[in-house]
Design goal:
Elements (H helix, E strand, L loop, with lengths): L2 H26 L14
Amino acid sequence: MNSSALTMMLLANIVVTVFTAYFFLKVLRTPTKDEGDYPPGA
């Protein structure tokens, strides 16, 4: 594998990992809803 292909592969993997970690942490940091709000929409 030449160096440009290796660089592109690493760059793509890093971008996907950063987006995944960002959304995972975003979901973890959302405040929990009160028990009275269950079920939603009812």
